[in-house]
Amino acid sequence: MTQKTATIMIQGTTSDAGKSMLVAGFCRCLKNHGWNVAPFKPQNMALNSAVTKDGGEIGRAQAVQAQAAGIEPSVHMNPVLLKPSSDTGAQVIIQGKAVSDMQAKKYHDYKQVAMQAVLNSHQRLSDEYDVIVVEGAGSPAEINLRKGDIANMGFAEAVDCPVIIVADIDRGGVFAQLVGTLDLLAESEQKRVVGFVINKFRGDIKLLESGLTWLEERTKKPVLGVLPYIHNLQLAAEDAIQAEQNINEENIRIHICVPVFKRISNHTDFDMLRVHPQVKLTFVAQHSPIPSCDLIILPGSKNVRADLALLKEMHWDKALQRHLRYGGKVLGICGGYQMLGHTIADPHGVEDTPGTSKGLGYLPINTELHPQKQLTHSQGNLLLTSGDPVPIHGYEIHIGTSTRAENAKPLILLNNGEYEGCISDDNQILGSYLHGLFDSPQALQNLLAWAGANTELAEDYSAQQEHEIARLAHVCQTHLNWDAINNIIHNQFAAPSHGGATTDSKAGVQTHV
Fold this sequence. Notes:
Blueprint: E1 6-12, H1 19-32, E2 37-40, E3 43-45, E4 49-51, E5 57-59, H2 60-69, E6 80-84, E7 89-94, E8 97-103, H3 104-126, E9 131-135, H4 153-159, E10 163-168, H5 174-183, H6 187-192, E11 193-201, H7 209-219, E12 223-228, E13 254-259, E14 264-265, H8 271-274, E15 279-284, E16 295-298, E17 300-301, H9 304-313, H10 316-325, E18 329-333, H11 335-339, E19 343-346, E20 355-358, E21 365-382, E22 390-404, E23 412-414, E24 419-420, E25 422-423, E26 429-432, H12 441-450, H13 461-479, H14 482-490
Parallel strand pairs: 1-9, 1-10, 2-9, 3-6, 10-11, 11-12, 13-15, 13-16, 16-18, 18-26, 19-21
Antiparallel strand pairs: 4-5, 6-7, 7-8, 14-17, 19-20, 21-22, 21-23, 23-24, 25-26
């Protein structure tokens, strides 16, 4: 049978080796080469997620990769999403919809079912795209996780696709990472590894060349490229919080603090604050005091009542009281919004043990959690000022509903005529379910003005991400061996005359650099 689609998989020696970034770079470069390309991640464990147009939930990284590929995100790009709610349990989301909360052992037994969804989604993408670029999860050499694996080599073996392994040289020990990972794979898995990529290299490439030669001789696998360290790359993170800022202290007009909950979710909400040249953004670690600032933002949470208890245990509730007493502003997003209300009831034990928690009592709302998750895209106008409407857009991912008191002031008038969010009577506190509050330039400027800062109009979030994707793609185009990569893709087609990219190099690409 003639194969219509090529699949190439990026696996890593460790978590955060650069898999998500490399898949995004591959997607944009292959798109530029003329391929109709889509990203895919069989199984993702992350608390940063995105909502597709059809109301499904996928990992945030796959939404960014879809943008790199120039296509709309789909639930089939991340058929299994695990959202941890405790150290041993997670909500299991299959093809965009939450199906159950499972402990690790139960999910291990469920993997056969999950694998069917993975293969179904891969087939759906195969029917629509020329090339599928797959992202692995963690490392394929985790011995305790290899049985029933659906995220790495288990998937690669099931669809019979080639694998590229990426390692982060900035961590050190890159040759041990690559050789050790390869040696721990089964013989059939080793054979499907078609090459390595080394990520985040700093310095003179000539000093690395002897090591690259040794690696190729030792493993009989080619090094397909060495990617330089890309300073200040601002792509939405899959999981780890990006706290680094590149700002001039003299330009700062507002200081914003975000307490980091144990189960913080969708911290990409703060990306546009972190890259704003006039905003100092501080993520406050657990057991650390909240410093003096202008605005405190309570973020989303995957386990709201547990993180509310943590907030009180850390005495952050006392810091909020003091902050408000001195005229500071407070904003709650999603779970943080729920915490600012009077009560959070979980009668069905959706997130944890059934019960009701007393909220912080700053906003006139009461919340009840329900098993059915709400996943929507929303557009509307901010109601902070009485002047011209300030457009805002974003997405909602939450369980339960919050009921406002009749006289409560809403924050947003949605385009469907409904009101969303809440403003305190004294105008010091805001709350909203809308993720992406800061992604629209006018809305960001308006919210910062509410918090007391006169700032310049920022870039649109989508445009900012597009700029970063272009930076990444330029590096990948320049430093990866596209002759070899295009050959890997073409070798999967029965007919060599497939009308995608040619094997001609599209740029001056060197084997190692």
